[in-house]
Amino acid sequence: MVLVFIDQNEGTIKKSSFEAAAYGAAIAQQTGKTAEAILLGDTPADADQLGNYGISKVHVVNQASLKTMDAQVYAQVLQEAADTLHAEIIIFSNNTTAKAVAPRLSARMKAGMVSGAIALPDTTNGFTVKKSVFSGKAFAHVNILTDKKIIALNPNAFAVTTSSGSASVHPLECSAVQPAVSVTQVNKVVGEIPLSEASVVVSGGRGLKGPENWGFVTELAGLLGAATACSRPVADIHWRPHHEHVGQTGLAIAPNLYIAIGISGAIQHLAGVNRSKTIVVINKDPEAPFFKAADYGIVGDLFEVMPKIIAEVKRIKGVA
Amino acid sequence: MKILVCISKTPDTTAKIAFEDNNKKFAADGVQWIINPYDEWYALVRAIELKEADASVSIHLITVGGADAEPILRKALALGGDESFRVHLENGDAFQVAAQIAGFAKAGGYDLVLTGKETIDYNGSSIGGMIAELMDVPFLSHATQLNVSGGKATAVREIEGGEETNEAALPLVVSCQKGMAEQRIPNMKGIMGARTKPLKVVDADTTAALTSIERFELPPAKAGVKLVPADQPEELVRLLHEEARVI
Ligand SMILES: Cc1cc2nc3c(=O)[nH]c(=O)nc-3n(C[C@H](O)[C@H](O)[C@H](O)COP(=O)(O)OP(=O)(O)OC[C@H]3O[C@@H](n4cnc5c(N)ncnc54)[C@H](O)[C@@H]3O)c2cc1C
Ligand SMILES: Nc1ncnc2c1ncn2[C@@H]1O[C@H](COP(=O)(O)O)[C@@H](O)[C@H]1O
Questions:
Q1: A319 and chain B: CB distance < 8 Å anywhere?
Q2: Is A72 in the same domain as A204?
């Protein structure tokens, strides 16, 4: 059985968890198994929707101590659940929750793990999973040598197909575990599209000259339903918040569309964005390295180009 | 308090990524090696700051690798570690590496094990969590701030969609990222001092690998950029809408 860990946020399932569900279902089909899901904490309102992604059963372990994420507690409960349900392959979406929990579960179960997977496993000779390495500059094909396997799928890496199916929700009893970590404060960024999940990202660099010009970035992002990002110096000089910094030392993202405005495209910046499917670069310097990584571009002054782009996007979106 | 900082070596961020031996091996010829930035800028520098605030803190460094990792350890010593250890194990998988570090940390009675959030070559983000599980201690992942007092650690951590503050009793494992400290440059005194600081080699245990890398692959070359004239930005919007179908 393939067991997919489902991450939720304020009572709804995360988009990347639906991707993990579809990926798990595809592996189940490939290996002649069934795909089921596991949720820790309260049952989210959209749990039955997992059926549309190929999940037959959703197991919910609801205990007070699972409402916040303590990696030690989660790993212990997930192992017990995986054993009870006879799970052979466990799938996570490779987000911050998975990065805390999945390695613990791997060490606990002695189950080989591949994190950052970007494709279905190749089972012709062993069980080999393609993963992103060198910050998106290469791939590795990693063979999992153990019977039990864990895969953490990169967000936006697997093309989801949905069908109409139904998933039944079942409570699952596991031993209660008390967390050793106490959570004393939580700050969630509300109302914004999380950068790691966004399918469109509009990003600005030092070429924008100052935070007062960020309207070009935020307005375009608003029109496209996009998240906003920035280069490292922009975050370092506090033009934009740190959580927007993408690149080698910031967040690595892989949206369908990445629009870079006034960013040179230094190799360390590219390391965080080169897995984007389509890259658009607006830069006045024809020699800017970003053009080598781009699919579309304009060599021009962003202060002249951006108002026209925004006006045209408004026109095609029918926004006055 | 005894802190163990996990140090890994990675190719310089500007290194050319290429493979040899039928794509089985990273082509290391002419490559400049650096301390993995998360290990150096955040984990190690924060450990040094904790020691500067409390002289009873000792900082030990550990790397799991071959003799070619020693220059990296020397550089880390120059920044401020007290002693360093290299577990001799080449090309270990994540679980093997974690097992060496966890075994060493348990035997040495360390209070705090610091790792980077991930290596910029393998991008595993897994060794810290594995160490914590093998030591059976809490794991504070993706920490952006860390303080220790009275046998307790307080950390601000990145979580899905925000951040939270956690408290837990020592010992524990923390994976470190941006925000925790500022990059430092080793000074002459540090570099001279590092020459005589201990660098001990430890034998690896027999933990077996759970995974193996079969081969590497480079992404296909981009088709090349399609440039739109600067006086027709509307054309770019049309292409994105009608050709690439991304907006
Ligand atoms: C170890 C290491 C790690 C790093 N990690 C990261 C990382 O994670 N992320 C990151 O982003 N950087 C990182 N950097 C920094 C990186 O090397 C670059 O310095 C940085 O990305 C440059 O940011 P920028 O493109 O915004 O600024 P600049 O390099 O100053 O580029 C500004 C660009 O804007 C263009 N421009 C200026 N005016 C206009 C205009 N009117 N119209 C159009 N275009 C204009 C210019 O032609 C130029 O290309 C790292 C560096 C190191 C050494
Ligand atoms: N060979 C190694 N020796 C010591 N520490 C390591 C080694 N590899 C990784 N680490 C530590 O584990 C962290 C996460 O690595 P990874 O799981 O490979 O992304 C790194 O930032 C290091 O602190």
A1: no
A2: no
